[in-house]
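Pasting as-is:
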Amino acid sequence: MADVIDEMIADPAIARLRRAREDVVQLTQRCYEAVLTPKEPGGLSAEERMALACRMARLTGVPAAVAFYDAHARATVQNQTLRDVAAGSPAHDPRLAAIVAHVDRVTTNPHASGRAEIAALVAAGIAERDIVALSELIAFLSYQFRVVRGLELLRGDAA
């Protein structure tokens, strides 16, 4: 099974170490596929998901994740507005602006999010199902970035 964390880290010794917990490796990869490229994306397209992942990677500053998601966004996101969002620009469409504001807030200051922020998503016309999908995306990427950063540190990359 292909594994994006191994692709990000690109270190055979780390890959071997991760395989000591093959079940976690496989579950993490399945989660990646489920949140980034689901069979039924609902109201969050694969391009939007990838653009948001790239934006989150930039916000967290995990070098391997930034490089990975930047390359994948350049290869898969065709919509110029979404390319701009991936690069860190604000969104002007009310729906996308609400999503970007939520992603930015939860990524940089998760404790600042609450009912009002969910209400803002609803007011922007985002369906409950898509709010859940967005939450899953944010939660998974936060986990993935922490794993990758830990592996970078284990490999000896600068802090």
